[in-house]
Design a protein that fits this description.
2,3-Dihydroxybiphenyl 1,2-Dioxygenase, domain 1, alpha+beta, eight-stranded mixed β-sheet, single chain, globular, about 140 residues
């Protein structure tokens, strides 16, 4: 199955400062901004476009339960995940299972833009957080 880079997720402490950097230094454009209070997400999200590439800036809204807050405590701010777009997430999950690659339990969801996504277990991806996603409304 073909996989293409969809976006890069960046963990940040201060969303406004990060938006300013992407707009004024990298000449990016703010595409959308929203808050996700879904348990296990708890973050403010700013979607930036820089010369055709998408970046998701992720700032924790709950320093106790947000995985972004936990990531920043453990590794510092910076690249949080790489998201790869697949044609069909259900088929990709079957392929992953056959390859012995696990996903993070409870991470399967649909975001506000209709993107279905799931995170692969970093223990099976050489430590990198990888998201698989598809956009079923586009088919």
């Amino acid at each position: 199955m073909e996989k293409t880079l969809d976006h890069i997720g960046i963990a940040v402490r201060h969303l406004e400062d990060s938006i300013h950097f992407y707009e004024h230094v990298l000449n990016g454009t703010l595409i959308d901004r929203y808050r996700s209070e879904v348990p296990g997400v708890e973050s403010d999200v700013a979607i930036m476009e820089v010369n055709g590439s998408r970046i998701e800036l992720l700032a924790p809204t709950n320093n106790t339960t947000s995985p972004i807050a936990r990531f920043i405590r453990q590794k510092g701010k910076g690249v949080h995940h790489l998201a790869y777009r697949v044609d069909n997430l259900d088929e990709a999950l079957i392929e992953l299972d056959k390859q012995g690659i696990r996903t993070l339990e409870g991470s399967l969801r649909i975001n506000k833009h209709g993107r279905r996504l799931i995170y692969l277990n970093p223990a099976d991806t050489e430590g990198t957080i990888i998201e698989y996603c598809d956009y079923p409304e586009e088919h």
